[in-house]
Design brief:
heterodimer, A: about 180 residues, alpha+beta, Cathepsin D, subunit A, domain 1, four-stranded mixed beta sheet, 4 helices, 10 strands, about 15% helix, B: about 90 residues, three-stranded antiparallel beta sheet, about 30% helix
C-alpha cells in the first residue's frame, strides 16, 4: 500500500523513490492526476540529472487543446516497496502520477486539508510480468486484461509466489 | 554495418503517424482500443500492448536500433493531460 496526503491546494501527493542510472534513489513528491493517462512525468532537468535513458517519442494533447511532441524515458521506481520499470514523460511541470501507473490499483482520497491518499493493488503479482517472459507473450494475451507491475529480471520464482500469496490474502476481491 | 538513419522528432512523428494509418490501423481489433501502439519508424515494425513498457521491450528485442513513435489506439495521442474537448479528435 502506498500512502500520501491531500494538501491545502486539494492536490493528492505521494512520495515515489526514483532510481538514477547509478542505482541511487531520489524520492520525488508527485501529484496524482487522474486526468493524465501516462505513468509519470518528471522535469527534463531531473531526468537528465538521474541519467534516465531516452526511449521513444509521442504526442500529447494539453489542457488548452494544444499539441506537443515529447520525449519518453525509462526509469525504475520503487512502487509499494518493489522495483518497477516504467515510462517517464519529460514535461516541464510538477511531477504527475497518471492512470497507467495506477492501472490495477484502487485509489482512495480524503479530499480535505491533510486528508489521506491511499493506493492499493487490486490483484496479486503475476510472474508472467517479468521482462524476459513479457517479450515472449503475444499481444492477444493482454486483450482486456489488467496489468501488473513489471518486475526487473533476476526476481526468483520463489519470491514471486510468496508475494502472490501475501497479496492474495490481503487484496480485496473483485466480483 | 549500415548506419541506422536518425530522424528528427518531427520526422519520427510524421513517419510514425503514416505507418500507424497504413499498417497498424487496418490490423487492429476492437479489444485493442486503449492499448499502446509502438512503431519503429525506420522499419515499420510495431507492437501493441496494454502496457507500454511491455510493448517497448518486445519491439526493442527485435529492433534494438528502433526509433519509436507511440500512439494510444483510438487516439491521435500517446498522452492526454486534463480535459477532453469534444471538438478535438482525441
Amino acid at each position: 500500500m502506498i500512502s500520501g496526503w491531500v494538501n491545502t491546494y486539494r492536490e493528492a501527493v505521494v512520495r515515489i523513490p526514483v532510481r538514477s542510472l547509478q542505482g541511487q534513489e531520489q524520492t520525488v513528491e508527485v501529484v496524482i492526476d487522474t486526468g493524465f493517462n501516462g505513468y509519470l512525468t518528471l522535469p527534463p532537468g531531473l531526468i537528465s540529472a538521474l541519467g534516465l535513458p531516452f526511449r521513444r517519442n509521442g504526442r500529447a494533447v494539453l489542457g488548452d487543446g494544444s499539441e506537443i511532441t515529447f520525449d519518453i524515458h525509462e526509469a525504475v521506481i520503487l512502487w509499494d516497496g518493489q522495483p518497477r520499470r516504467i515510462a517517464v514523460d519529460a514535461a516541464d511541470t510538477e511531477p504527475l502520477l497518471g492512470m497507467s501507473l495506477l492501472d490495477g490499483h484502487e485509489l482512495n482520497l480524503q479530499v480535505i486539508d491533510g486528508g489521506q491518499a491511499l493506493i492499493r493493488s487490486l490483484q496479486p503479482f503475476q510472474s508472467s510480468r517479468l521482462p524476459q517472459e513479457a517479450a515472449a507473450r503475444s499481444t492477444s494475451a493482454s486483450a482486456g486484461g489488467r496489468t501488473c507491475p513489471t518486475m526487473p529480471s533476476g526476481v526468483s520464482e520463489v519470491r514471486m509466489s510468496l508475494l502472490a500469496t501475501t497479496l492474495a490474502s490481503t487484496a480485496p476481491v473483485i466480483r | 554495418m549500415a548506419t541506422v538513419p536518425r530522424y528528427s522528432r518531427d520526422e519520427v512523428a510524421r513517419r510514425g503517424d503514416e505507418i500507424y494509418d497504413r499498417e497498424v490501423l487496418p490490423r487492429l481489433r476492437p479489444e485493442d482500443e486503449g492499448k499502446f501502439a509502438l512503431i519503429d519508424v525506420g522499419t515499420g515494425d510495431y507492437e501493441v500492448d496494454r502496457d507500454e513498457v511491455t510493448a517497448s521491450d518486445r519491439l526493442l528485442a527485435r529492433r534494438p536500433d528502433a526509433q519509436i513513435w507511440t500512439r494510444q489506439v483510438g487516439s491521435r495521442y500517446a498522452r492526454r493531460f486534463g480535459p477532453r474537448f469534444k471538438t478535438t479528435a482525441a
